[in-house]
Fold this protein.
Amino acid sequence: MFDPKMNLRKVWGALLLAAGLGMFFTIPEKAKEFQAQGWNIYAVKPVFYLVSAILTVGGAKKLFQKNAGSDSPDDKTEH
């Protein structure tokens, strides 16, 4: 059955995953820019990688999550 909340969750998960992966691959370029401006890259780079990992894991979790929170009778187990 068509569930708009589930589709929205999948789209949001895909966007988070794409943002995390995009950020992960652009960190080396941004690190060079920050070094050119005189920033302490040893403090900034790990934080960028942490944010990238959080976005990627959160997006993957939402994207590949089974119908969590669904009130469908098929999802419930009888005891």
